[in-house]
């Protein structure tokens, strides 16, 4: 079975969030099910620099107004098709924003071009390969299913995978004429969204199947609280909506062999974590004493509940805990955390920015990871925490609720608890959960059992890849019957 995956970022070449992790890990996991995935991605400068031995497999004289090429390459086991379109992607900044953090004003054009190229590959652009199914990821690739619907490719099964419904790709109606779609595409059954053009909305309307990254999030997004204005459409398509929880690459995230940590360890040698704990304390200038070290590894935004962290930081210190934070984002939230660190030198440490090796060390050395997200489609940092014995303390929402078993009395008695959940998602809710965390910390046998149970959790792609394989098979069967 041949799958074309269309994604705007793919780890390990370029990453801004969990989308890249999934786009990079899922194809490798599906290979074990006899499924070949080729991934179409943009040729950003950093991608072009990191790839070797590329070859041209197709050209466009006019890809929505610009020349472009499709390059084939392999990288760390991934079979890649790279859209080399300098006018769209050869520029400074990140995948979506310039050096000042502002969205590129032509993002609609850039990712419509990526999607158009994906549709043309589905049509047979490549001389020796054609996909059986096309999977598009998030709004940046959602137009792939739209182009396929309105240009005679509706017979090919398509899947739209939503990693975060909050990012929708909504643009003014004035761009529609440049998308090279027939007039009927700009209707409520297509791209029209409250008078604008909605890339994600169009994908949700036209894809054969819709997946999102956890079962709980699939239910949440059909409600007004989490549906971001699309809950009506999602309810209408509920029969085609499925939540499949993300996995992680357990080769990259493996405390037994991780080159980024100070001392490897296993569930049977948790005492070795003390070396990593010391390394975290030194990196953040944190005092070593008897209290737990809590870590935060996150974008520093309201969605991630970072204001809640700032509200409870003083309280954590009063209770004898320490806090280390790695991330960047909203300047006001960065400032609030830096101010807390200034008030509590030796108890709170902050690193503004992102550092992949440091994130591994923090998971290996901190005692617990705080994830108070107001909504979280799946989340990956709690899965890394489970894998590394860094106990997750999570808001009861989305994939966080699906993947962490709360250490309530029943779960503790049954020895199945893997972390702590809390609700309501506010400072009081988090403090209530942390009271339970501190209590468990003072009982080393209880704490150790929670760590061990977490490290036994199934966090790989194995079971989720099997569910995707079943979904692909069902779509092919449906296509053959139609």
UniProtKB/TrEMBL annotation:
<dbReference type="Pfam" id="PF08323">
    <property type="entry name" value="Glyco_transf_5"/>
</dbReference>
<keyword id="KW-0328">Glycosyltransferase</keyword>
<dbReference type="GO" id="GO:0005978">
    <property type="term" value="P:glycogen biosynthetic process"/>
</dbReference>
<comment type="similarity">
    <text>Belongs to the glycosyltransferase 1 family. Bacterial/plant glycogen synthase subfamily.</text>
</comment>
<dbReference type="InterPro" id="IPR001296">
    <property type="entry name" value="Glyco_trans_1"/>
</dbReference>
<dbReference type="GO" id="GO:0009011">
    <property type="term" value="F:alpha-1,4-glucan glucosyltransferase (ADP-glucose donor) activity"/>
</dbReference>
<comment type="function">
    <text>Synthesizes alpha-1,4-glucan chains using ADP-glucose.</text>
</comment>
<comment type="pathway">
    <text>Glycan biosynthesis; glycogen biosynthesis.</text>
</comment>
<dbReference type="GO" id="GO:0005829">
    <property type="term" value="C:cytosol"/>
</dbReference>
<dbReference type="InterPro" id="IPR013534">
    <property type="entry name" value="Starch_synth_cat_dom"/>
</dbReference>
<keyword id="KW-0808">Transferase</keyword>
<keyword id="KW-0320">Glycogen biosynthesis</keyword>
<protein>
    <recommendedName>
        <fullName>Glycogen synthase</fullName>
        <ecNumber>2.4.1.21</ecNumber>
    </recommendedName>
</protein>
<dbReference type="GO" id="GO:0004373">
    <property type="term" value="F:alpha-1,4-glucan glucosyltransferase (UDP-glucose donor) activity"/>
</dbReference>
<feature type="binding site">
    <location>
        <position position="15"/>
    </location>
    <ligand>
        <name>ADP-alpha-D-glucose</name>
    </ligand>
</feature>
<feature type="domain" description="Starch synthase catalytic">
    <location>
        <begin position="2"/>
        <end position="235"/>
    </location>
</feature>
<dbReference type="InterPro" id="IPR011835">
    <property type="entry name" value="GS/SS"/>
</dbReference>
<feature type="domain" description="Glycosyl transferase family 1">
    <location>
        <begin position="287"/>
        <end position="448"/>
    </location>
</feature>
<dbReference type="Pfam" id="PF00534">
    <property type="entry name" value="Glycos_transf_1"/>
</dbReference>
């Amino acid at each position: 079975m041949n799958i074309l995956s269309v994604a705007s970022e793919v780890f390990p070449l370029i990453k801004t969030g969990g989308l890249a992790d999934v786009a990079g890990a899922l194809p490798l996991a599906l290979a074990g099910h006899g499924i070949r995935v080729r991934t179409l991605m943009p040729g950003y400068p950093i991608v072009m620099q990191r790839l070797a031995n590329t070859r041209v497999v197709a050209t466009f004289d006019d890809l929505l107004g610009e020349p472009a090429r499709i390059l084939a390459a392999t990288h760390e086991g991934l079979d890649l098709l790279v859209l080399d379109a300098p006018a769209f992607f050869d520029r400074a900044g990140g995948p979506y924003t310039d050096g000042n953090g502002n969205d590129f004003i032509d993002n609609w054009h850039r990712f419509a071009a990526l999607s158009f190229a994906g549709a043309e590959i589905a049509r047979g652009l490549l001389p020796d390969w054609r996909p059986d199914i096309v999977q598009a990821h998030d709004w940046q690739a959602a137009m792939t299913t739209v182009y396929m619907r309105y240009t005679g490719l509706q017979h090919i099964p398509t899947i739209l995978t939503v990693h975060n419904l909050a990012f929708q790709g909504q643009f003014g109606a004035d761009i529609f004429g440049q998308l090279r779609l027939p007039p009927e595409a700009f209707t409520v059954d297509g791209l029209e969204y409250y008078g604008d053009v909605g890339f994600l909305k169009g994908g949700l309307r036209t894809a054969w199947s819709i997946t999102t990254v956890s079962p709980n999030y699939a239910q949440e997004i059909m409600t007004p609280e989490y549906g971001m204005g699309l809950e009506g459409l999602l309810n209408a398509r509920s029969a085609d909506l499925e939540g499949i929880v993300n996995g992680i690459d357990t080769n990259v995230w493996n405390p037994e062999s991780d080159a980024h940590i100070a001392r490897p360890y296993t569930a049977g040698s948790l005492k070795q974590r003390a070396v990593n704990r010391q390394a975290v304390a030194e990196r953040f200038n944190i005092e070593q004493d008897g209290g737990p070290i809590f870590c935060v590894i996150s974008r520093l935004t309201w969605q991630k509940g970072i204001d809640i962290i700032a509200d409870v930081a003083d309280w954590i210190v009063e209770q004898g805990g320490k806090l280390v934070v790695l991330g960047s984002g909203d300047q006001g939230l960065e400032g609030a955390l830096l101010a807390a660190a200034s008030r509590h030198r030796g108890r709170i440490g902050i690193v503004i920015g992102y550092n992949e090796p440091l994130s591994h060390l923090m998971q290996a050395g901190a005692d617990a990871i705080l994830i108070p997200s107001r909504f979280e489609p799946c989340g990956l940092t709690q899965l890394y925490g489970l894998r590394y014995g860094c106990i997750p303390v999570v808001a009861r929402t989305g994939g966080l609720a699906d993947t962490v078993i709360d250490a309530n009395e029943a779960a503790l008695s049954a020895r199945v608890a893997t972390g702590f959940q809390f609700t309501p998602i506010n400072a009081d809710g988090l403090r209530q959960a942390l009271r339970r965390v501190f209590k468990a910390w003072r009982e080393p046998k209880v704490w150790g059992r929670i760590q061990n149970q977490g490290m036994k959790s199934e966090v790989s792609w194995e079971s989720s890849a099997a569910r995707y394989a079943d979904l692909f098979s069902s779509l092919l069967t449906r296509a053959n019957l139609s």
